[in-house]
Write a structure and sequence with these properties.
The complex is a heterodimer. The mean pLDDT of chain A is 91. The longest helix of chain A has 19 residues. Chain A contains three helices and no strands. In chain B, a hairpin with a 5-residue loop joins strand 8 and strand 9. The chains are: A mainly alpha, B alpha/beta.
Chain lengths: 66, 534
């Protein structure tokens, strides 16, 4: 994805809880956090929302209403 | 141009969320009820009930009750199938408002049940095994008792699995690959394989009760009555969801006998369901089975009617009927090849799919017929208004209880939406496709297919079967008006999305997938009938 990284500060207790939870699912806490952030920043749906609104706007233009 | 735009925008804003008069708590004068029963019937077409004009007396109980109730002759779902309809029914939220990635009701999202529970109601839900109406998808929120009967539905699905030896499966797959070289050999293979499956399944001699995938209405109503017996006297909210009209269609023998269908054996019903499910047959070839398949569906509706009669008898016997708002509706309808489609896949949002019945029996309210368009998005706020309970700000529909007795509603277009061809909302690829949307205003219906970048306008008064889309040169003002509604709706929803709720719902789904490492519903290639739900 990228070679550049940055550090974030998370509560120690939370990290330990997450590390217990991720066993067998993710290799590291960083892998878990990266996966979650990738998933929730996926904007495919929002892109479609915008595109669909523009399609209707264009249709109105084509019909001469705006 | 500017003035027209302003006019329609103001119309739009009245629809998309700013219309409730100050979101104030209202207490209808004639209302005496404290409790409420909401019955949702999966796949129940509006036109199957006598009070909506069906000539066959399938539902004598509901038809008689309709004489003393408020009934709607132009009610529509806000989405179809189940997973696109229920956010509107329970949370008065349009199906894609939180984003198309969101499945179910979001954690913490206000629903009829959460509001009533917070208001001191005892709450119970008894749902006949629909995998999209589960605790995991947020539908248990607000319910003290939540029974989704999924254990029964899963066990039943397992009982009709067709299993073959590994050797046979390998041989079969090789044969299928070979047959796919030409259309003719592929068709021959499909026919032979279908007949083989019929021969295999015919040896099992299963009863209708064993073949049915979902608990029948009597099982769910029994559980609901048991729960009602234990009430402490506080007002209650009971939600019952029935699956009897859902495919595969295996109605109880008593229902078939009552409708004079005893000649249809379980073996023949299995054949009908299997042939109806075939993806390789053209609508023309399926047509010959349509009448018999519809008869099975009708028997499911009849069974629902008989069980609802029993439920009402129970409420009367326990002195609860005169204190209860009783509401019956459906999440969506069902198609029987009217437009070449079967079941309730979101491929066209045809009238048969989006029209739903609504019947409201409320103590102290006189019978009325509401002819104006009523979207299920308004159901939750309307019910809460009827019960005199405060309506959450997140509800997008209007509270129309006080308008119902007049039979006239404030006119506004209805929006119906879904993700086109999304047959499994648990699949991220399926749910992130293009929107399919309907804007319905009186007799005018605009269907927007974003995948094809096309729209079709129908005049339902002249063309009730939606056979003749109007050309662009006809009714251009109406087309533009509905397009403007669509644009305003899309814009409003995008700009007013509750991002916190959306994030919570997405994290819930993510956690589930990480824990299970697989989608919960997968097509099982070895079943004779597919297990599509919705």
């Amino acid at each position: 994805m990228t070679d550049e990284f940055r550090s974030v500060r998370l509560p120690q207790v939370l990290c330990e809880q997450a590390e217990r939870w991720l066993q067998g699912r993710f290799e590291t806490l960083e892998a878990l956090i990266t996966f979650v952030l990738q998933e929730i920043t996926n904007n495919e749906g929002s892109r479609l929302d915008q595109q669909e609104e523009e399609m209707v706007q264009q249709r109105l233009r084509d019909l001469g209403y705006i | 141009m500017t003035s027209r735009k302003k006019k329609w925008f103001s119309s739009g804003s009245a629809i998309w969320g700013t219309s409730r008069s100050g979101d104030s708590l209202t207490h209808p004068r004639s209302m005496q009820a404290r409790s409420s029963v909401l019955v949702t019937v999966d796949c129940l077409r509006a036109d199957r009930l006598g009070f909506r004009g069906y000539s066959r007396p399938l539902a004598p109980f509901l038809d008689a009750l309709a004489q003393q109730s408020i009934v709607f002759s132009s009610a529509v779902a806000a989405g179809a199938p189940t997973y696109f309809s229920f956010p509107a029914i329970m949370a008065s939220r349009y199906p894609l408002s939180l984003g198309r990635e969101v499945v179910g009701v979001a954690p913490g999202e206000p629903t009829i049940a959460t509001v009533l529970q917070e208001s001191g109601y005892e709450t119970g839900a008894f749902l006949a095994g629909n995998p999209y109406l589960t605790a995991r998808l947020g539908y248990a929120q607000g319910f003290g008792q939540f029974s989704d009967f999924l254990h029964l539905a899963d066990a039943r699905a397992g009982s009709v699995k067709f299993s073959a030896s590994p050797g046979f499966s390998r041989f079969n797959r090789a044969l299928e690959r070979l047959s796919n070289r030409t259309k003719l050999t592929a068709a021959a293979y499909n026919e032979l394989y279908f007949r083989y499956c019929q021969w295999r399944s015919g040896r099992e001699r299963l009863s209708m009760d064993q073949l049915r995938r979902y608990p029948a209405a009597n099982v769910v109503v029994d559980a609901a009555c048991d729960w009602l017996k234990e009430r402490s006297g506080r007002p209650f909210f009971l939600w019952i969801h029935l699956m009897d009209p859902h495919h595969p269609y295996y109605p109880p023998p008593e229902a078939m006998e009552s409708l004079g269908m005893s000649h249809i054996t379980p073996k023949y019903a299995r054949f009908l369901n299997s042939v109806w499910n075939r993806g390789d047959l053209s609508p023309r070839r399926l047509q010959r089975y349509r009448k018999e398949v519809m008869a099975l569906y009708d028997a499911g509706v009849h069974w629902v009617d008989r069980q609802l009669a029993r439920l009402v008898e129970f409420l009367k016997a326990h002195n609860q009927w005169d204190d209860t708002v009783f509401l019956v509706t459906a999440d969506h309808g069902e198609e029987f090849l009217e437009h070449g489609n079967r079941y309730h896949s979101p491929v066209g949002l045809a009238e048969q799919l989006i029209r739903v019945p609504i019947l409201i029996h409320a103590p102290g309210s006189s019978a009325a017929r509401v002819t104006d368009t009523f979207s299920l998005i308004h159901l939750a706020p309307t019910l809460l208004e009827g019960l005199g309970v405060e309506i959450p700000h997140s509800f997008r529909g209007r509270a129309l209880w006080n308008d119902l007795s007049t039979g006239k509603l404030p006119g506004s277009p209805a929006i119906v939406e879904c993700v086109e061809s999304c047959n499994n909302q648990f699949s991220a690829a399926d749910r992130c496709g293009n929107r399919l949307m309907v804007v319905l205003d009186g007799d005018h219906k605009l269907v927007l297919r974003f995948r094809e970048q096309s729209d079709s306008l129908y005049d339902l008064a002249r063309d009730p079967e939606e056979r003749r889309p109007l050309p662009d040169t006809v009714e251009t003002k109406n087309r533009a008006r509905l397009l403007e509604c669509a644009r305003d709706y899309l814009r409003y929803e995008r700009e007013h999305r509750d991002q916190a709720l959306a994030l919570r719902a997405r994290l819930r789904e993510l956690r589930h997938h990480v824990v299970l490492k697989s989608a919960p519903v997968e097509a099982d290639k070895t079943t004779i009938e597919t297990a599509e739900h919705g």
